[in-house]
Design goal:
Chains A, B: Its EC number is 2.1.1.-. The structure is a homodimer of 514-residue chains. The first copy, chain A, is α/β, with parallel strands linked by helices. Chain A has helices at 3-13, 43-59, 67-76, 91-98, 146-158, 180-191, 203-217, 221-226, 244-255, 276-297, 324-339, 357-372, 393-409, 417-420, 422-428, 438-441, 459-464, 470-483, 492-513, and strands at 31-32, 62-64, 79-81, 86-88, 104-107, 116-119, 122-127, 133-136, 140-143, 196-197, 230-234, 241-242, 260-262, 267-268, 303-306, 310-312, 319-320, 344-347, 377-382, 384-385, 390-392.
Chain lengths: 514, 514
């Protein structure tokens, strides 16, 4: 028998049974990452990627399908070929516009306690956005619907570690496609008082978001322009294309002063070269082109540099997430974003189809890549499953636990006379134990991270408690959080004004599509 | 619908079905970590811990229950109080002996292809050692037994990513306690030709290991002393005590020139202060005391600095593993080990009672702490469950996958003209895809990490395949590896000599205990 096990056995005999009531979680807090990021690539290698991407933009350029964007690009000095909608950019053009983007900004929530800072050392965890399906252990996987979407936002609101609603966790496919964004915005504003993300697909969806955000905050659009409140993701249609809906969304956000995370969808081997270095060159070119475009629409508008490079399984064509390649790409993307002094967006991703060990270890590989890459905004930080097609209620809890652990990890270790506790060690002496010392008693309540999901009981107690897996425990946790959810207060006048806006817009959109 | 999901959906439609035959895994390889480790603490903070631990050794000292050790310590200049077996160390005494330990050494396997380097940039993954129970999905948890132990070693042999047997994965409690180490050594030598670890509890167990290792290698003990072949862990009985069996084991290993990982069992809040800084001070004091003692036995003998600091759940007294505190302690321990230029040992740990998401995320937090802490030897790298009480067959596969991913992560990203692939991007152009380009075709077979356990199929294909979780897939994998296991060849004369040695020793030990 090894000594390590012997010591553990001795300790386990001392284990007491203390049931925990309710759901234990950390309080809401803004997070700062003071650790130096991992420098995966040398400064020369980062420079090489930078210069290759500028060359790509100069020689090949982007296909910009959105006419207004081409007009703005041409006015700013880009070379625009209307015959094939191709736009080519001189390196100085890109560099001068990219330099206008701010390094840090604040996003205001309708509850000021939930305002978040973007950039610098700040880290924001946003819930997943975009999935078409919902799933949980009880009801399995099902098409996205309004009820599930609302319940998901309620649980997101209850999870203190999540800073931001992520742009509709579950698409309400039971509602009309043309107006369901209004139902989502109305729900996001009502069901949480954290910041929320809007939809970039089409200018009118962005306009509705900004109008509704203004109503919810009791502010004018001019006030919002000076102090942003919502955020969205614009994906280039990789390789090297900006399509019309995304071009419209980008333009509307930029003109309204709202930040966009410019995120090329560069899956190595499919939409980008089969090498991660090649995918990064392409990612960087596309991100810089979109960042510059936003600055042409509105100089100084806040943006984020989005890194989403991953790879496909070359045997099947399936996208892979949370791979070693993904981790390396995230670290390198952070280096690139810092080169441009632009806040960095990355993601917590997995290709797993269920909430299992794969979902956890692929998520862990992603999270470490983002955090040690100096991320500022983690999109899909909680809930994403199945390559983003599904929002899982249990995955939301699993991720919230992993995020809590990361947040605690980012809390620097204190090293001083008091924490080194020489006197306590002297007092206990060889062979003693520290349970009852004054040094312990003064600190034990807040000494260590206390988990929400992890079960640290010994085997016998765990078995007596039903031998539940982490995923089964996550199921109980989200249901308890949903059951005890209370909707944050809202001024009735604001609620009425939002309802009136939604009703008016549904009527208008219905008339247009009729 | 978000653009990110739209792109994924487009890609998933292209997914082909390619079944993979057999178990796909990476080949055996030595690993180097060329990334700079995370400097969690400042140089001043590391110095503060160093000086506090030396002060602790000088003022409080260690209780050394093993008489020979006290004799050696006294001869070397330590202050020994025989009335209470307390040993106090002048700082210069510790520093001068610690300085004798080598920064790097090689461990030889009976198959030279499986030799491993310890220290510097080298990283070794050792299977779990010490568990009293075995478990798998089919048969549940059961007391350790010889058959399970042998099967576990067979799977460890088959998993190429694991470099080293870890000192008996499952204790054969169905065999007599006094002689079961012989059965384990005999099995470890026969069933794998990788390096293996021996038992430190009691000098005779170490002597038997060295004799049997010498027979297995066809070498003399003098040859082994010059070129080590086995390794063990010595735990101090924290706080500040070295007990007799561990003292004997340490002495026997040191005199035989075999390396020991000196590993204080400093669980913050129980055997060490409730602060991680305090636990690190105590860990450092105990580790340095044991490292110095080994050098007093045999100057220049290889050793490792073991960091095992974790914490207990202060509500229940349960030990916790893979916590944020564990990760921080691992990173700081690596900084301490590098201060002394001694190879660093850490571990892949979890408190989970089953192979679930918790096992995966606690393992992930541990692994990142070890790797970015600059670890040289990861003990329990694969298989440990339930705070080390159980070796799980499915956990072994889960960990092997996570280790493979880490190994791939440590493979630096290549950035040059060729990998940046500008020509390929130019060739494909806006809106195209890269599946069929020459750049892709020339590289696709080895472009990306190919998983052993992860399932990247889309939901429908995964469901058609039985909707198996990662843990269920791990179950199928270890059974397949065990089924297709082939015992490595051994000279029949050596096998006979080993059998004769075991028989003789069992007879001798039986006579002594009769």
């Amino acid at each position: 028998m090894s000594g390590e096990r012997g010591a553990r056995e001795a300790l386990r005999r001392k284990e007491r049974r203390v049931p925990v009531k309710g759901i234990r979680q950390l309080p809401f807090a803004r997070i700062e990452n003071r650790y130096p990021p991992i420098q995966l690539l040398s400064a020369d290698e980062i420079d090489a990627i930078h210069h290759a991407s500028l060359r790509l933009l100069q020689e090949v350029g982007m296909e910009v399908l959105h006419e207004e964007s081409r007009r703005v690009l041409k006015a700013a000095g880009a070379e625009v070929d209307e015959t094939n909608q191709r736009v080519r950019y001189a390196p100085e053009l890109i560099e001068s516009f990219v330099a206008m983007a701010p390094a840090e900004f604040t996003l205001e929530a309708r509850n000021p306690a939930h305002n978040v800072k973007v950039g610098g050392p700040h880290v924001i965890f946003a819930a997943t956005g975009g999935p078409a399906f919902a799933s949980d252990l009880d009801r399995g996987r099902r098409a996205g619907n309004y009820q599930d979407m609302c319940d998901y936002i309620r649980v997101v609101h209850r999870l203190n570690v999540i800073h931001q609603e992520g742009g509709c966790p579950i698409e309400p496919t039971d509602l009309p496609a043309e107006t369901r964004h209004l139902d989502f915005y109305r729900a996001a504003i009502a069901l949480t008082d954290k910041t929320w993300q809007c939809w970039a697909l089409g200018g009118y969806r962005v306009e509705d978001a900004i109008e509704m955000a203004a109503i919810s905050m009791g502010k004018t659009r001019a006030q919002l322009k000076a102090s942003p409140v919502t955020l969205t993701v614009v994906n280039s249609n990789s390789p090297l294309r900006l399509d019309i809906p995304m071009g419209e969304g980008l333009a509307a956000m930029a003109k309204a002063g709202q930040p966009v995370a410019m995120t090329p969808f560069t899956l190595a081997g499919a939409m980008s070269p089969v090498t991660i270095a090649g995918a990064l060159v392409q990612q960087n070119a596309e991100a810089l082109a979109l960042i510059a475009l936003a600055q042409m629409h509105n100089p100084g508008v806040p943006v984020l540099y989005g890194g989403f490079t991953s790879n496909v399984d070359m045997r099947t064509g399936s996208p892979a997430f949370g791979t070693p390649e993904y981790t390396k790409a995230a670290l390198a993307s952070g280096q690139l974003a810092r080169r441009y002094k632009i806040p960095f967006r990355s993601s917590n991703v997995t290709a797993s189809n269920c909430v299992d060990v794969q979902a956890a270890y692929e998520g862990g590989m992603s999270l470490w890549g983002t955090i040690m890459g100096g991320v500022n905004l983690i999109e899909h930080a909680a809930g994403w499953l199945e390559g983003g097609l599904t929002a899982s209620f249990e995955k939301l809890i699993l991720d919230a636990e992993m995020l809590q652990m990361m947040r605690e990890f980012l809390n620097p270790l204190q090293v001083d006379e008091d924490s080194m506790g020489l006197e306590a060690i002297r007092e206990v002496g060889p062979g003693g134990h520290f349970f009852g010392t004054g040094h312990t008693l003064a600190r034990f309540e807040r000494a260590f991270y206390e988990p929400m999901l992890s079960d640290w009981r010994n085997f016998e107690n765990w078995q007596d408690g039903g031998a539940k897996t982490g995923t089964e425990r996550a199921n109980a946790i989200w249901k308890e959080l949903l059951k005890s959810y209370e909707q944050p207060a809202m001024d009735p006048g604001i609620a009425e004004a939002l309802d009136a806006y939604v009703a008016k817009r549904k009527e208008e959109i219905g008339r247009q599509s009729a």
